[in-house]
Structure formats: C-alpha cells, structure tokens
Amino acid sequence: MRPTLLLALFVSANLASAAEPVLAQQNKAAALTVAVASPAERRWPETVPASGWLKPWHEAVIAAEIDGLRVTAVLVDVGSVVAKGQPLVRLADEAVRAELRNQEAALASARADLAKATANADRARKVRDSGVLSDEKINEYLIAEQTAMAGVESAEALLESQKIKLAKTTILAVDDGLITSRSAQLGAVVSSGTELFRMIRQQRVEWQAEVSARYLPRIRQGLTATIVGPGDRRVKGTVRLVAPTVSTDTGRALAYVALPAAARPPIGLYVTGQIELETTTALTVPETALVLRDGIAYVFTVDADRRASRIRVETGRRNGSEVEILSGLDRSTDVVTAGGAFLSDKAFVRVGGEALVKLEKGESR
Fold it and tell me: Taking the model in full, what pTM does it have?
C-alpha cells in the first residue's frame, strides 16, 4: 500500500508543476494591457464658484438741459463708440441766438448808462467842496454811478447765461463710452431732463459675482476671476471691489469683477465662473484614471508583480483633464491611466509602452 501511495503523490506533484506554466500562460492571455503613470504635483489656485449678472461699470444718462427746443439732428445711434465732448444731438437754436443778440444790446445800453453816470459822478466829486452842488445832489450822482455799475454786471451775467444756453443746444458726450440706448427722435420738442441716450462709460463691463459669505474674508481686491461667456468663451477679469454687506435673503455677497474692454461681453447675461484664491500644491491624476462605481471614485494601482489593486480616493479640484486627489493615494504609486474601467481588483495586467520599461526598472518609484 505504501509504495502505491508514494507513487500517486509523485505523479500528482508532477502534474501540478506541469500545469503551472499553462495557468500562467492562460492568465497572461486573459490580461488587459493598460497605461500607467505616477501622480503629478501641480501648483493650482484654489477657486471659489460664483455666478451673477454682467452689468455696466458706470452707466451715464445723457439728457437735455433746456426746455422747449426741437431736435434738429441726431448724430449717433445705439452701438456707437463716442469720445468725451463729441456732439450727439443738435437742438434748434434760432430763438436762443435772438435772445443772445438782445442781451448783447442790453449790455451795450448798460455800459452807456454807466459811462454817463460815471461822468456825472466825476464832476460831482470835483465840485464837492466848492458848494456849487448840494450834498444831496452829489450823493444822487454817486448812487447813480453805483447803480449803473450794477446794471452792467447784471447785463454781463445775463449775456453769459445766454451763451451757456446756446452751447447747450448741442448735446455732448460726457465721457468716452458706448451708446446702449437712444430716446432722441428727430423733430421732437424736448424738456429739461428729457433722457436722450444711455452710455457705458469707457466701455467697461463688470461681473457682479455672487459668492458664498463663508468665502468673503478671503476675497480681496486684485484677485483673478474667470467667467464662462457665450460659446463657452472664457474671459479673465480682476476683482475691483468686494461689497461690505451680505444679503439676508440669500446669504451671499457681491464681488465686482472688472472685465477687459476688448472682451466686450454682452450686458445683461447671467454667467457662471470662479474667483481664484491662494495657490496650493495638488496631487493630480488624469481624469481617465478615475473609475466611478456606485457613485464612489476609485483608481487602480499596479504593483511590481503587475497586479492591479482598486483604491478608493477622494477627489477635489479639476483643471482641464486633470483631477486633484485629496486622500487615498500615495505620490509614488503607479496609477492605471487608461483601461481601468475594465479591470477587477487583483487582476493581472500588461503594462504597455514606456510605462512598462519604467515599471520594470522601478523608475516610477
């Protein structure tokens, strides 16, 4: 019995040894070829999500300043870029010019009266001590001179006022800017205060970004912000002002972000974006390395024996095609960057390309 048992054990051991290469070949034949890479350390800014309206930095209202004049010319339209002092509207000025000539004549008359009164006052001063004229008459001439001087000053002021009124018949741009609305109509008779145009001063548009109040102490003037405009076009701006109050309705605060004039984003859009805070180091992997199962993020790592291990990770910021790993992953680990979605835990893998050479040499460690 004993020789027979020994013979059976010997044969079984030999069969098992012979089967091992076959099993290894079967494993290799079933293995998936993957790409691996080590996590990278990046300097990424911490960002604050924000959303809000695009509005003018300052909106200027251009209005008529005199009453009862007719619009004779409208020189610009919506979308016109204008310079400070540029004529925008002309009003009928015939009546104003006639009144100006009347005031010029009134000034000339006042000056003539002053000349006469001055001559009488000079004669009175010369004979004051001679007794030729009574003190009452002398005082009358001196008072007449002062009255005439006041009349000249009044006529000069009225003339100056009329000149200003004439100048107001041509309405000028109050600053460089972009015309956004026009109420001026040719032939309309305007009143003082009638709005004729609205303009964006200096063509400056800003993003009034709403941010959570918990970020308020960390947001300051000069930080960089980015909005996602129409067509997914990204526009960078700078925080120029942070509102000192928080809305009691929403619990959010406003950060005013100045945008470059060259970008010219449309006013009135509600856009999303982010404000960049301090820059910190981030451990990142390609987005393709993440495997989501049941709402949980995993990555697969490969050891020296080319076995894949599934590791649960916590993700953070994203930048392009890279994702920050907050926990669960070591810097020296080799991570599967392509093909992980088809792997199972402890699966044997082939490592392709340059990554295979690095893995064999231990360079990735």
Answer: 0.62
- Kindly state whether residue 176 falls inside one of the protein's structural domains: yes
CA 340, CA 83: separation in Å to the nearest integer? Answer: 61
Question: Which pLDDT value is given to residue 128?
Answer: 80
The residue among 33, 34, 31, 36 whose CA lies nearest residue 334 is 36
Rounded Cα–Cα distance for residues 212 and 255 (Å): 10
Please tell me what DSSP assigns to residue 307: B
| Same domain, yes or no: 205 and 275 | yes
Distance in angstroms between the alpha carbons of the first and the last residue of the chain: 56
Tokens of 235: 């526009």
Q: One-letter amino acid identity for 349?
A: V
Distance of alpha carbon 293 from alpha carbon 143, whole angstroms: 104
Phi and psi at 38, nearest 5°, equal -85, 150
Structural domain span for residue 356: 31-44+281-361
Please state the length of the chain. Answer: 365
> For residue 52, which of 250, 272, 358, 311 has the smallest C-alpha distance?
272
Q: Identify the CATH number of the domain in which residue 81 sits.
A: 2.40.50.100
Q: If residue 120 lies in a helix (H) or strand (E), which one and from where to where?
A: helix 94-126
Residue 11 lies in a domain: no
* Residue after which a domain boundary falls, among 200, 216, 244: 200
What is the enclosing helix (H) or strand (E) of 15? helix 2-30
**Residue 114 within a domain:** yes
> Distance (Å, rounded) from C-alpha 203 to C-alpha 177?
5
List CB contacts of 5: < 8 A, sequence separation 6 or more.
none
pLDDT digits (tens, 9 = 90+) for 110-130: 999 999 999 998 888 888 878
What is the total count of domains within the chain? 4
Whole-angstrom distance, CA of residue 161 vs CA of residue 102? 13
343: DSSP letter: -
Q: What is the pLDDT of residues 39-72, one digit of tens each?
A: 988 888 788 899 999 999 999 999 999 999 999 9
As a whole number of angstroms, the distance between CA 55 and CA 266 comes to 9
**CA angle 282–285–289, rounded 5-degree value:** 155
**Same domain? 119 vs 141:** yes
* 262-296: burial string, b at 16+ Cβ within 10 Å, e else: eeebeeeeebebbbbbeeeebbbbbeebbbeeeee
Distance CA 113, CA 304 (A): 114
